[in-house]
Amino acid sequence: MNTPEDSEPKCSCGLSAKLRMSRTFKNPYRLFYNCSKDLDDQCNFFCWFDELSLSDDKPIEELTIVRDECIQLQQRLVDIQQEYDNNRIVWNREKLELTSQLSTIQAELDDIKKKIKLVNESDLMPPVNKLLDEDDGADDAVVINTIETVVICSE
Questions:
Q1: Fewer CB within 10 Å, N or C, the chain?
Q2: In the predicted model, what is the mean pLDDT of residues 106-133?
Q3: Could you give phi then psi for residue 141, rounded to 5 degrees?
Q4: In what helix (H) or strand (E) does residue 34 lie, and over which residues does it extend?
């Protein structure tokens, strides 16, 4: 009975060759055999896996389909990564813009608060207890008291 070990080719060293996968641009995901020793000690044995089985084209077709699928998936992965990177650049740009707008608005708010505080502390603003006095009745005006402002409406 044939076992997978019996069908593996032998390298020039007499050892069973190791099945590996190509990661080159020209032959991506294509299987090949070479010496099973460490890279520095290998003999020059090399053989494509699919060339060993020329008698039956079905495995070659299946390998081609799988290799093509791997290439398509790899390209899709590259496309998705590129889209992610592009989106990240846009998001960072928008984040910087929004942060800048927020800082500008915060500075304007702080400036308005300072102005309100200055007005409240100035001599031009009547004392708070004066704002709470009842209408003197000398005119036809109605006094409406609020915390921040006094509005006088004429009837």
A1: N
A2: 78
A3: -85, 150
A4: strand 28-34
Determine the structural domain holding residue 28 and report its residue range: 1-52
The gap from C-alpha 7 to its chain's centroid, in whole angstroms, comes to: 47
Is the whole-model pTM more than 0.70? no
Within-domain flag for 14: yes
H/E element holding 7?
A: helix 4-7
Give the pLDDT of residue 106: 96
Contact 33, 41 (CB under 8 A): no
DSSP label of 148: S
Could you count the other beta carbons within 10 Å of the beta carbon of residue 18?
Answer: 15
Which range (25-39, 41-55, 61-75, 136-150) has the least confidence?
Answer: 136-150
Question: Based on the structure, what is the number of domains in the chain?
Answer: 1
- 88 occurs within a structural domain: no
As a whole number, the mean pLDDT across the chain is 78
Residue 5 included in any domain: yes
pLDDT computed for residue 105 by the predictor: 96
For residue 16, tell me if it sits in a domain.
Answer: yes
